[in-house]
Known about the structure:
Elements: H1 2-6, H2 11-23, H3 25-43, H4 49-87, H5 97-120, H6 122-132, H7 152-162, H8 167-182, H9 194-199, H10 203-209, H11 227-232, H12 255-272, H13 276-284
Helix pairs in contact: 2-8, 4-7, 4-12, 5-6, 5-7, 5-8, 6-12
Amino acid sequence: MINFLAKKLEWLDVQYWFYIFNDLSLLYIIIPFFVLELIRYAYLKRLDKDLVLDSIANVITFGAFFLIEIILGILAITKVYYWVYNNISLPHLELNWATVICCVLLADFAYYWEHRTMHRIGIGWATHTVHHSSPHFNMSVAYRFGPLDAIMPVVFSLPIVMLGFDPILVLLSEVFVQVFQTLLHTEIIGKLTKPIEFIFNTPSHHRVHHGSNRQYWDKNYAGILIIWDRMLGTFEPEKEKVVYGISQPINSVNPIVVFFHGISRFVKKLGQIKGLSNKLLAFVKPPDWMPKEANVDELPK
Length: 301
């Protein structure tokens, strides 16, 4: 086993396997499963205009996010990542199964902290709230992104690059974590066996994460392994029926409203806050934070 894990790999082989799991999963899992979900909605008489338009809005937000990510990718991956990799990283690691597996695990752990940060600071929630604002829960919701969602991963990925992992391997590992997350956005799959539910993130755990129920707020941040939440005190099992969405519903399927509502609400909140220092604090304080002297209602999540 040790010899197998330590065996040097060719980049072509690694990229091939990530291509199978990352790119092609859209064709052999995600789209077929979404069609199955639509059939289920129709059977339950829940396939209405609002759900269809919401799904279309989800795909449009993904297109806008993807365009931003491409622009950032050119700057961050080819410039910042490789500068760090070539100038201030530890000795570069050889490409083998051990480093691939370690990189995926590190990307998963980084995703936990990135995701937790997106929920717990004002500017993070201003963009990530887009992903949570749908009142539905299906695989199209996995593609519902906010305008700044591509920025936060850069901050949490750079330490992995500094450890000597190739920036492209880090990027492919991040995408793998995201693809795994996509598969969790469904109501079709109930709870799985206890060992799986204990170790891995599952649809049940992720339904909790999307709940607007008060006891489900800011829980189950995990990407692949739910053990991060269990160890760090943010785990919550699915008990009460999940009500999807956010506490201040946007009540819109307009893609522009969906994509920008978090930022517009944050800008409005800044307008209610007096003093430059307080305005700056709003960027890093929790989303519902307001200065004590402010004569406005707290903004719920």
